[in-house]
Write a structure and sequence with these properties.
By secondary structure, the chain is an alpha/beta fold. The chain has 19 helices and 13 strands. Strand 8, helix 13 and strand 9 form a beta-alpha-beta unit. The radius of gyration is 21 Å and the shape is globular. It binds iron/sulfur cluster. Iron/sulfur cluster binds next to helix 8.
């Protein structure tokens, strides 16, 4: 058996790659895939002809394939996707909105999910058996989801059960986790949550058990609990590379909330200093951030919420208002261009797209669509039946409480 001590600390490759596309100007326009590969990223291989296509050729190619497929295919675009991809989306949204939409559209044969791996898995879980969900680039994972590996979470669960007995801890996982982790929660009386319904799922969980294990984002967990009035000394952090997560038995017995030590590499870039600077530069600024940011940043902001909340709050604001935003740059840039009557900018002056969302280069979209036109399904995401059953249970519990 591999113990915590035997395991080496590994930084997910997505974390290392995160800075590859950071730059100081905000020109995020796509180049040929071959040019983008030159920064040294390791993405899924695809036929060389797609690597060399110019952005204009790719766009024309996608339009032709889209027309041929007509109503057989649905393209879903997460808010953090590049503009060159989002322009082809039948619907845009956050991960849950997109999966729900996919579930409602059981008339389409193919769902092309322009987002990351866990989102395509969720769409597959919620879709009908005859539908096929496709992720254009299989390397499009999520660094946060990668931080909660099944073996590590199972070890943690065993340790918690040994220390506290069965039924004491309710496992809650953020949507941004693998289907295996969602299934583990479903199997053990737990639930899934999103950034917009985390408080409701915490209420549900504390009505079933004494403690909550929250996976994989420590910040969303801490921010949600703090908002509900929980003290910081009632929460402990679980480091999967240390025995008992780096805690004593007494720490575990005293804790009300056990936070998995995961984070989002995009949202943890935002700092209180950036907020202070924005307030000095624009005294009337409204600061809105995502709950994957740290507690300090969330506390210093004026408004906190999911990507849908951020988008809606700015859209509904009065003309002439100023907004400093703490979320992914592709979405911030899009909100800015769609709200020309307001001043909208990203809190971080260094432009860093989510490196894994960025892996959906339009060339990949073109490749999978061409495959479908020719009758070949490329990059289908299929969740195993047992995992599907329990992860669906955890998702259905979430739907029943919100
Ligand atoms: S923004 Fe963060 S949580 Fe969302 S997909 Fe990217 S790395 Fe994952």
């Amino acid at each position: 058996m591999v113990t915590n001590l035997d395991r080496k600390t590994t930084i997910p490759i997505t974390e290392i790659e995160q800075s590859a596309f950071c730059q100081t100007d905000d020109d995020l326009s796509s180049r040929t895939l071959q040019d983008e590969f030159e920064v040294g990223v390791r993405w899924q291989k695809l036929p060389i002809s797609y690597m060399r296509m110019s952005p204009e050729q790719i766009e024309a190619n996608i339009r032709v394939a889209r027309e041929k497929l007509a109503d057989r295919a649905l393209i879903l675009g997460h808010h953090y996707q590049r503009d060159e991809v989002i322009q082809f989306a039948d619907i845009r949204g956050d991960s849950f909105k997109l999966s729900q939409f996919a579930a409602e559209r059981n008339d389409v044969e193919f769902i092309i999910f322009c987002g990351v791996h866990f989102m395509a898995e969720t769409a597959d879980i919620l879709s009908t058996p005859s539908q096929r969900v496709i992720l254009p680039n299989l390397a499009a994972g999520c660094s946060m989801a990668d931080m909660a590996q099944t073996d590590d979470v199972l070890d943690c669960w065993d340790d918690l059960t040994d220390a506290l007995g069965e039924g004491c801890v309710i496992p809650v996982t953020y949507m941004n986790s693998t289907a295996e982790i969602k299934s583990l929660c479903g199997k053990n009386g737990g639930i899934v949550c999103t950034s917009s319904n985390a408080s409701a799922t915490f209420d549900w969980s504390y009505s079933k058990g004494e403690k909550v294990l929250f996976l994989p984002d420590q910040h969303l967990g801490r921010n949600t609990a703090a908002k509900m009035g929980m003290r910081l000394d009632e929460m402990i952090l679980w480091n999967p590379f240390k025995p008992l997560g780096g805690n004593t038995l007494e720490d575990i017995k005293n804790a009300k909330l056990i936070l998995w030590e995961g984070h989002c590499s995009v949202h943890t870039r935002f700092t209180v200093n950036q907020i202070n600077e924005a307030r000095v530069k624009y005294p009337d600024v409204n600061v809105v951030v995502h709950p994957e940011c740290t507690l300090e940043v969330v506390t210093a902001a004026d408004s906190v919420g999911s990507t849908e909340h951020i988008k809606n709050v700015i859209e509904q604001a009065a003309p002439g208002t100023t907004w400093a935003v703490g979320t992914e740059i592709s979405l911030v840039n899009r909100i800015a261009s769609e709200n020309p009557d307001k001043t909208v900018f990203c809190l971080d002056s260094v432009v860093c797209p989510c490196s894994t969302m960025y892996r959906i280069h339009p060339a990949y979209v073109s490749w999978v669509l061409d495959g479908l036109v020719e009758g070949v399904v490329v990059n289908q995401i299929k969740v195993d039946d047992d995992i599907r059953r329990y992860s669906k249970l955890a998702l259905e519990r979430m739907l029943s409480v919100v």
